[in-house]
Amino acid sequence: MTATATAAPARGAGRPHYGTHLFLIVMAVMWLIPLLWTLYAALRPKAVTDKYGYWSLHGPINLDNFTNAWTQGGMATYFGNTLTITVPSVLLTLLLASMMAFAVSRFTWKFNLTLLVLFTAGNMLPPQVLAAPLFEMFKHTPLPYSISSSGTLLDTYYAVIAVEVAFQMGFCTFVLSNYMKALPGGLTEAAQVDGASVWQQYSRIIMPLTRPALAALGTLEVVWLYNDYFWPLLFIHSGDRLPITTGITNLQGQFLLDYNMIAAGATITVIPTLVVYLALQRHFVAGLTLGASKG
Amino acid sequence: MASHHPRPIFESRLDRRTLLRGLGGGAAALAAAPLLAACSGGPAPAAAGANATSLGSGLSDPVPRSAVQAMVDAFKAKSGATVKMNVMPRAQLVDNISSYLQSNPEDVITWYAGYKMRYYAAKGLLAPVDDVWEKIGGNFSEGITKASEGEDGHKYFVPNYNYPWGFYYRKSLWAERGYEVPATFDAFLSLCVQMKKDGLIPIAFADKDGWPAMGTFDYINMRTNGYQFHLDLCAHKESWDQQKVKDVFDNWKALLPYQDPAALGATWQEGARSMTGKKSGMYLIGAFIAQDVTDKEILADLDFFPFPAIAVEGTDAIEAPIDGFVLSKRAASNKTAKDMVAFFGTGAGQDAYAAKDSSNMQTAKDANTSSFSELNKKGAEAIAGAKFISQFFDRDALPAMANNVMIPALQGFIKDGTIDTRTIEAQATSLYAAE
């Protein structure tokens, strides 16, 4: 943090920014307090907090809540389910959105703008509006029992993945088309002269060049889909098929809320997001500014 | 010849890498579909007589979850049937019950007695279990039998356990200060005065989540106007805008100064801390308070007395919600499902549950009660001695009435002591007419 501050030449090297630092430290601490407190509560047995209250510093601390949340909450299954939903959703979204973006950004067609507006507008649609119609639609879509235990699209991963893809595609198309527009038009023209088909232009020229944007979007999408609570809650009824965000509520009783164990469970669910963020930090930051400036 | 043709740069050269990559991608795409099918697919609903059934359970937190599992295991061992379990978070079952029952429900489902059961039975979403009751009927008291019936007089519910609501207090505190259990409302009020003088909050109270205050309303209404009036009011067969209802709130107003003034910001667990920490004298709550008390000494020090008599029926009515099981409509012809709920309606089945979760009381008469704590014994006696059993407001009334009308109305009353019965009646009329 200090390195970036001193390295900023525009503000004049050597002039210390006490005010800025104080502000940043205060903000950072304010953000960290609830997180650290959750962690601390998670480390304490319920009996201890019952006795001394949550506003206290009293031992002992141990990892019992974490092991209980993991085993009794069945979190391993839920993580697996999240993976089953997230991975195909992200791959499908990126594949379809990149095709769409390629079409609207590299070719001139009468309805280019209309299509792009349509996709972007879809991005603004609140998902809740479509909850009831989609539920009814899926309820009346019959599927053979070999691929769906309910005999309909309800209670299947297909339903969740399809809806996630549909809702994420608008944003991804928007971002990718802006990125592709910035690529020099000469590239595809040259390829065309060399006899490349449209498919070859897409797969061998544009897609490799779009890789940074795809990586950034992929990172963002993984985190977003991992965090999604709404669609699985609506479509999935079998307890053992829930993703982690919905499954974590398993730890909540009819009356009793064991806050310590819930804190532990919540902490565990944060870990994958942190790992994704730390490992792909570079793409994450790039993703935040993607599409911010129009090419 | 071939050398004369310029080689198009995009003619794919089939080298080892591209081949492998192409194969890998194709294989992954091909593999994805059946993999998902494996995750989402399942056997068709078991045909009748296949000796298989399924149980959808909303008891998902660790202790009750293991207790339901123990029940099912006991049934499996006894009958040799296979039982598919679907344990889902409670909120998911309760909030989505309507769509769940209509889509792909399990055969047997954990559910609650009261209007909350009768409502879905009347909608035709549950299967009657009269034939099961022919076998297990002798196990249950009259109050519980009545609570298992739908509007049409058929049975739709098999009880598992129940838990009484009443005033909980710490014996040691009461012995130290010389307090005595009050039998009448007047004695109760003078006890409150005494406690306040002694520097205690007389009645611990918490209503941040909205539902706990309904317990106070239920009791004052039953004690003021009687059980039948309370039930009819909950089912909106009686008007809310009448003197009898106003009397309830007038009686409550006498209690308000003695209830914890910070109630609106406290969860029931915080209310429990106030009582167990001897900051408050007593606490009107359900027996599930025992789940929150981790200190064994405090648990042994807890005692219970019923809500004192006010005007009618003495203390004949008790609030003791029953949790149990219902059958989804399509399980009507599944003999295994019926055998399973029949087993759950016996002492043997309920004991398997109680062995893991001791905070509730089995409802079957032939259940083993020898392992009951003192507190449970007292609760069980209170229920056995009661002539009428109510199920708590949010189970006796339309769910929307409880959540959308009663919670804000009661919270408003706790805040400033005013209540507008006419608005409640207007909202109730439109809600019950819409169903």
Q: Can you describe what's shown?
A:
The complex is a heterodimer of chains A (295) and B (435). Chain A has helices at 2-7, 18-43, 46-52, 64-72, 75-106, 112-124, 127-139, 157-182, 185-193, 198-209, 211-227, 230-235, 244-247, 259-279, 281-289. Chain A is mainly α. In chain A, helix 5 runs antiparallel to helix 6 (112-124), helix 6 (112-124) crosses helix 8 (157-182) and helix 8 (157-182) runs antiparallel to helix 11. Chain B is built from 21 helices and 13 strands. In chain B, the strands form three sheets. In chain B, strands 1, 2, 3, 4, 5, 11 and 12 form a seven-stranded mixed beta sheet that branches. Chain B has a four-stranded mixed beta sheet with strand order 7-8-6-9. Chain B has a two-stranded parallel ribbon with strand order 10-13. In chain B, helix 2 links the parallel strand 1 and strand 2 (82-87). In chain B, 46% of the residues are buried. At the A-B interface, helix 3, helix 5 and helix 8 of A face helix 1, helix 2, helix 3, helix 4 and helix 13 of B.
**What is the CATH C level class of the largest domain in chain B, in words?**
Alpha Beta
Task: Report the top-level CATH class of the largest domain in chain A.
Answer: Mainly Alpha
Radius of gyration of chain A, CA atoms, in whole angstroms: 24 Å
Number of domains of chain B: 2
SS class of chain B: alpha/beta
Radius of gyration of chain B: 28 Å
CATH superfamily of the largest domain in chain A: MetI-like
* Domain module count of chain A: 2
The gross shape of chain A turns out to be globular
The helicity of chain A comes to over 70%
Pair with the most extensive interface? A-B, 53 and 48 residues
CATH architecture of the largest domain in chain B: 3-Layer(aba) Sandwich
Determine the N-to-C terminus distance of chain B. Answer: 84 Å
How confident is the prediction overall: mean pLDDT of chain B?
87
Structural class of chain A: mainly alpha
